[in-house]
Design brief:
Structural class: alpha/beta
Order of helices and strands: HHEEEHEHEHEEEHEHEHEHEEEEHHH
Distance between the termini: 80 Å
Strand content: 15-25%
CATH topology of the largest domain: D-Maltodextrin-Binding Protein, domain 2
Number of domains: 2
Shape: globular
CATH class of the largest domain: Alpha Beta
Radius of gyration: 25 Å
Helix content: 40-55%
CATH superfamily of the largest domain: Periplasmic binding protein-like II
Number of strands: 15
Number of helices: 12
């Protein structure tokens, strides 16, 4: 190839790259002017007719029903109703450990956390919560006869030999810390079933969870588990007040349009006869209704 011809080719190549770059910049400008990700998530789910939810396999909130081969539970079934009203007919479950739910949501492995997650001020800094679907107190799962007489978190504080089981990322670890249970007295499990096994094996003296979770675990044992629900039981006292946990759905903060639309439909459903009938098989009663408690109040620490 002659020198002039080489120069001509190089010039044409440079011109072509410049045109491509200009096209690329133009496309970036258009993207910047498009609707925000919040609207896109909702519209994409409507267009696809399906959405992914993250859950942690903790009954009665969200768990895999092996007989039906589908994810179910209080949180999942309410989500199915609400999402269907929004034009999203299919729910796909993504199983993960409880402590990985918020990171998984942020990483877009799924678009909603449907796991009965408690609304707390700390979590409100990471996700956008719907209003709660239930409110419930705490309970301990212990060996039959409750040999170490554990009827409250404060009882664990009084006995340095007691080991308290908690699930990774769950609110119970926070409660334990706030009532001054040393970290050395806490045993962290990946999920509720592992915690139950841990108490059976003596790795922990009690497993702290919601009363509904403990009720469900006891209902699924054959009576030969060697475990029982600690009775009576006193909820932990945090800042001079007994705690009551309120569970809700969580969205990415930039999915506000999605969260608002979901919350509007949710408000029409919670407390209705249809809602009560839907959640009754999972052990929920009118006593667990949130009774007007909102995410805004909970995020503000009220």
């Amino acid at each position: 190839m002659t020198l002039p011809l080489r120069r001509t080719c190089r010039a044409l190549l440079a011109l072509s790259l410049g045109v491509l770059a200009a096209c690329s910049d133009s496309g970036a400008d258009k993207t910047a002017g498009q609707a925000p990700a919040a609207a896109n998530t909702l519209e994409a789910a409507k267009a696809a007719g399906k959405i992914r939810i993250g859950y942690a396999n903790e009954a009665p909130f969200a768990f895999m029903d092996s007989k039906e081969a589908k994810v179910t539970g209080e949180s999942v079934e309410i989500a199915r109703v609400v999402l269907k009203r929004m034009g999203i007919n299919e729910v796909q479950g993504v199983l993960t450990e409880f402590g990985s739910l918020i990171p998984g949501l942020q990483a877009k492995r799924f678009d909603i956390i449907a796991a009965g997650m408690y609304v707390t001020p700390e979590r409100c800094g990471q996700v956008a919560f719907s209003d709660p679907t239930y409110g419930v107190g705490q309970a301990f799962l212990v060996k039959q006869g409750n040999p170490k007489h554990l009827h409250s978190y404060e009882d664990v504080v009084k006995n340095p030999d007691v080991k308290l089981g908690v699930v990774v990322g769950a609110i119970e670890a926070e409660y334990a810390s706030k009532v001054k249970i040393p970290a050395a007295q806490m045993v962290v499990f990946p999920d509720a079933v592992s915690a139950l096994s841990g108490v059976q094996a003596g790795r922990a003296d009690a497993y702290a969870a919601t009363a509904l979770t403990v009720n469900d675990l006891m209902g699924k044992t054959d009576g030969g588990s060697g475990l029982e629900k600690a009775e009576p039981f006193s909820d932990p006292q945090i800042d001079g007040k007994g705690v009551r946990g309120y569970g809700a759905y969580a969205f990415r903060p930039d999915d506000k349009a999605f969260a608002d639309a979901f919350n509007a439909e949710l408000a029409k459903f919670i407390g209705t006869d249809e809602h009560k009938k839907l959640v009754a098989p999972f052990g929920f009663t009118p006593q667990e209704l949130p009774n007007g408690v909102t995410a805004a109040k909970l995020c503000a620490g009220q």
